[in-house]
Amino acid sequence: MCREAGAAFTTCVASAPACLGPGGVQACLRGELDGPCVRACACGPEATREACLIACGEGPGGAAALALTDACLVDCPAHAACLAAPAVDCVGLCDGLAACDVQGERCVTACRAAPDVALAGCVADAARLQGGCAAVRACVGEPAPAVDPGCLALCAAQARCTGEEPIDCALRCGASGPETAIRAACAATMDCGRQAVCDALDGTLNPSCGPLCRAAAACGLDEPTCRATCTGVLATGRDPGYLTRVPACLRDGCDAAAAARCLVPPVRPCEVLCEAAAACGDADEVCVAACDEAGRLPEETSGYVLEWDAACP
């Protein structure tokens, strides 16, 4: 139950269309976990509910994506009917494609003649999860514009705070430099209110990362990549035990994939709560510490009282 509650909350926040209103971030923080994914997954077997919530939060595609409308979620029989006979809104689909300049000729006519459930579900997911035109273009197999991989990684890390489509950001970025990977690692970990710290980082590597990254390199991880990631994470100050935690993690599993995971600081429920609250203007600088101490988002900060079980696996 604890894991399911965590998945429901994460899905609620990740798929929230706005800060306010039904299904918004603030509703999630108040514990009102009744968004479309939660209601849809409640109609399935309890044993698969957590997996359903995670898959829905990432975008289920196809008929499952089309069955997340209010009309399909009146009750479980209605949801089952929508899954069995998915209805494609051809006008809505073609409007979504046209907004990203990928609409073919006579789109509505062609859609009505042969509805494409997979395409419609993909575009519906792109809209619900605010993936932008990059996600819509991916639905039709249109290649994304060529951008610098380092810039794209940085922009993807920043997007959770800026809301900007990473492709557009990367096109402005141009070419990456020695500071780009450091800033990306910092941006991916730093809270949204302090992203300026990451933007100010240059290409100077933190010397404290040397021993740690030599150990990571022995596990197959690229050492320069490790040093950039380590430098960026340390700049955030959000993982005080990083230099001791990562070597211990490497001893538990020494291969390139495991080493890469070790470098990423663990995300605590309180960080998720406070970051979401801050993005909607409802958290202060001491939110995470206060949340950790109380086991919930502090009432004096925002009034939200979503409880978290400290023993949640």
Name the features.
313 residues, mainly alpha, 0% strand, disordered C terminus
Could you characterize what this model shows?
The chain starts with a helix and ends in an 11-residue tail after the last helix. The chain folds into 3 domains: about 1-85, no CATH class; about 90-140, no CATH class; about 175-265, no CATH class. The chain has helices spanning about 1-15, 25-30, 35-40, 50-60, 60-65, 75-85, 90-100, 105-115, 115-130, 130-140, 150-160, 165-175, 180-190, 195-200, 210-220, 225-235, 240-250, 255-265, 270-280, 285-295, 300. The protein has about 325 residues and is an all-alpha fold. Helices cover about 60% and strands about 0% of the residues. It is built from 21 helices and no strands.
Low-confidence regions: 295-313
What class would the helix/strand composition place it in?
mainly alpha
Question: Secondary-structure element sequence?
Answer: HHHHHHHHHHHHHHHHHHHHH
Distance between the termini: 10 Å
The averaged pLDDT comes out at 80
SS strand fraction? under 5%
DSSP helical segment count:
21
Total number of beta strands = 0
Main pleated sheet? none
Rg to the nearest angstrom? 22 Å
Which percent bin holds the helix content?
Answer: 55-70%
The total tally of domains equals 3
What best-fitting shape do the alpha-carbon axes yield? globular
Compact summary:
This protein is mostly helical and 313 residues long. It contains 21 helices and no strands.
Summarize the SSE layout with pairings:
Layout: H1 2-14, H2 25-29, H3 36-41, H4 49-58, H5 62-66, H6 76-84, H7 90-98, H8 107-113, H9 117-128, H10 132-139, H11 149-162, H12 166-173, H13 180-189, H14 195-199, H15 209-218, H16 223-236, H17 242-252, H18 256-263, H19 269-279, H20 287-294, H21 299-302
Helix pairs in contact: 1-4, 7-8, 7-9, 9-10, 11-12, 11-13, 13-16, 15-16, 15-17, 17-18, 19-20
